[in-house]
Structure formats: C-alpha cells, structure tokens
Known about the structure:
Elements lengths: L2 E12 L4 E11 L3 E5 L6 H8 L8 E10 L2 E2 L7 H7 E4 L10 H11 L5 H14 L3 H4 L12 H13 L5 E5 L7 H17 L1 E5 L3 H7 L2 E6 L2 E7 H6 L4 H7 L5
Helix pairs in contact: 3-4, 3-6, 4-6
The site of adenosine-5'-triphosphate (ATP) has 14 residues, from helix 1.
Amino acid sequence: MQSKISVQNLSLTYSDGVESLHEINVEVIANAVNVFFGPAGGGKSSLLRAFNRLNDLADVRHLSGEIWFNGKNILEPDTDVIELRRKIGMVFSRPVPLPLTLWENVAYGLLLMGEKRKNRLDEAVEKALRLAALWDEVKDRLNDPASAISGGQQQRLCLARVLALEPEVILLDEPTSALDPVSTAKIEYSLLELKEQYTIVLVPHNVQQAARVADYAAFFLQGRLVEYGIGKQLFVSPKVKETEDYVTGRFG
Length: 252
Ligand SMILES: Nc1ncnc2c1ncn2[C@@H]1O[C@H](COP(=O)(O)OP(=O)(O)OP(=O)(O)O)[C@@H](O)[C@H]1O
C-alpha cells in the first residue's frame, strides 16, 4: 500500500470565518478507491478542491498545512497549477459537457495541448471512452452533439474527457448524484477497472455507495476527520461512535 497524496495538518477557513477543514491528516492510497464520506458540510468537497487547487478560485481566508504529491507540496506558490490539474483530474456532480460533439469533448484537452495527429486523437478518444464504459453506446455517433446523449452517458463522457489526459489521480465529487441506478452501476463498475491504472478519490452519493466501492474510507464531520481506515473494516466495525451512528443510519 503506497501513498499517492499525503495530507498533513490541513486547515481551511473561508471568508465567512467558519473553519471548513480542521487539521486534517489523511493518506490517499495509490491504485485504490479512496472514499471521503459524511454528512453535508463536512468539508469533503473542500478537501477534494484543495487537491487540484480549485480553492484558489474561492474566497479563502486561511489555509495552512501541506499536501504532498509526487514529492512536492502542491500548496506552494510555485506549483504549476495547469500541470497539476492535468495530473489530478476532477469529475463534478453534474455533468457539464462542452457544447461540442462527443469526439471533440473527449479530444478537447489533447487538442489544447497541441496534439494535431488525427490518428493519435482517434486512438485516445476510443481508449478513454472504453475506460469510461461508454464506447459501445456511442461509437457510431461520435459526431453527434454531446447534448444528444442521456445524463448518465454525459457523466461518463465527462469522465472520459478527464481520462484522455491520462491523469494520475481522478477526483469524483458525488459523480452519480444526478444519475439513475443503471448509470450509477456503470460508473461504479468502471471504478473497479480504473483503479488498476489510476488512484481514485470519491465523494460518494450515499453511505451504501461508500460501502460498496471503498478500499479506504475517511469519515468527515464538521470539518474534522473522525475516522480513517480500510473500507471493509470501517463500515463493518467502526471504532468511533460518531462513525457507527452515521454508517448505521442513526444520523445524517
Ligand atoms: N466557496 C465557499 N465559500 C464559502 N464557504 C464555503 C465554500 N465552499 C464550502 N464552504 C463551506 O465550507 C463547509 C464545508 O463545505 P464542503 O462543501 O467542503 O462540505 P461537504 O462535506 O463536501 O458537503 P456537501 O456534501 O454539502 O458538498 C460548509 O460549511 C460550506 O458552507
């Protein structure tokens, strides 16, 4: 078990003065599904956004601590944020495809990076769509607008867009919250394949999803990391009463 991202004493306060993350220490394990779960407002999204510096865009009053990735503290000001976001890609809770064709949506990042060879782009688009478990459904309509496919397919398209850039880590913030059970199952199934090659951090849609997919799980409550450990152990025999209450549905 190898750590991919190491969070050390991370604290974050937005401009409203409320501490959204309080001295968080957690490891993101490589080639595993790392689940951050807990009730709304616990700080899960804030932590995810810190991993690829999306919090730079928010009104943050105080940020301290370290986030180590590939031998570097990515909170240092000299971090190349564009490069960081290519290595640590993110999928949001609502699919936001670009107003372009399916092919263009997946090829977009590579085109921006200057890749012009059509055969290379075609290969990358197919590979990413296969990994996102969408290829079979769309391979004959790659020139259709992205708006013409279902919400569940759009979400897998957004995943494929991230995968085309061959990131090292994929952050998924409630990626199935707007999806039907069949599309949800497809995304969960692709996570199992994706973790062979990538490191996954998932904020799940609910506790049941957390328990289904978590190799490692961290329970967040009001900005604090209450409990962290191997998924199966944490859901079956949590050590802390607050975790137990939450996973057994007594609150939240
Ligand atoms: N951009 C922001 N500006 C100000 N406060 C924010 C911002 N983003 C989050 N917060 C606050 O930080 C706290 C933690 O929110 P965060 O979204 O990280 O939690 P969460 O566990 O992901 O919850 P949810 O499941 O509702 O997304 C909340 O009190 C929230 O209101």
